[in-house]
Known about the structure:
Layout: H1 3-18, E1 33-39, H2 47-57, E2 59-65, H3 69-82, E3 90-95, H4 99-104, E4 108-109, E5 132-144, H5 145-151, E6 171-174, H6 180-193, H7 198-207, E7 211-213, H8 216-223, H9 225-228, E8 235-239, H10 242-248, E9 259-262, E10 269-278, H11 284-294, H12 297-307, E11 310-311, H13 320-325, H14 337-355
Parallel strand pairs: 1-2, 1-3, 6-7, 6-8
Antiparallel strand pairs: 3-10, 4-10, 5-8, 5-9, 5-10, 5-11
Helix pairs in contact: 7-14
Amino acid sequence: MSKRIFFLTLTLSLLLAACVPNATPTQVPGEPANLTVMTHDSFSVSQEVLSAFETANNIKINFVKGGDTGATLNRLILESLSGSTPNADVFFGLDNTFLSRALEQNLLEAYDAPQLTQIPAEFKLDPENRALPVDYGDVCINYDKAWFEQQSLPLPASLAELTDPRYANLLVVENPSTSSPGLAFMLATIAEFGEDGWLDWWQAMKANGVVITSDWETAYYTNFSGSSGRGAQPMVVSYASSPAAELIYAETALSESPTASLTGAGMCWRQVEFAGILKGTKNRAAAEKFIDFLLSQPFQEDVPLQMFVFPVLPEAVLPEAFQTTVESPEQPASLAPELIASQRDAWINAWINLMLN
């Protein structure tokens, strides 16, 4: 081959290569596909359940934990606004307090997973199936059963009753600007008392000695008497599943949990968690398989003891402690995701101005 023909051939090859769009490295035949899943810090799954999925589908999962739900979502939004290829393929952990924000930012691709037909309509909050429901849990007030029995004090049957002087200094809550359960509980009060009355309730609670912490860990393990036995408050904003955790992880075997939840109408906020395929993924097929896995019976039956939430799949069998200990509210509080998206920041700022100043 002459030098002229060689250089013409080389130039043509380079030009053709330049026309090929950027892409992630192709999968080596026989090697597992690599899938990156962005989650919040509380995500957990049994290794044996995950390994069974990876082996059956020849997929290797890389989990990236991005902080709490809000921080993780902000990270994904910033990546999207930069115009770069997403650093993850799937997002798990989006909840109904941030749902509209994620959908407005167009972060997710629609996927009509086959298992959606088995999931109750109450959990399917995105009609386009960009965010698919995976689990749910109720943020409620937990109470120390022994403390109330010893004091012969009746339990409050509503949020309004908590302003009674009998319950002065007995409740610890979390700051909604720094805590997910704190935000959920604040939303429950807005749903219960309306946009015109919720701050009046908080003002009454401030006068009644409500205690505020920055995070759930401090509220539950330091302030709450029902967990450590040393805290000053016998009521804490936590989860309806917390009593089951107290029973399961007790240092000595217990016949019943030392704590329980107040589940009166409007006293709890139902959090629904979603997963979705991130727009622009180069691993769409593997991402679909992972979503199918999240909605499958093995994962749905694994999730209660991993993250202490409930599966959305009705046929999933619950652990015994969930069946005997957890009380689910019949009338949990709710607000339209669109309303939350438009007012969340203003509500948090109003709460801070009232309660922390």
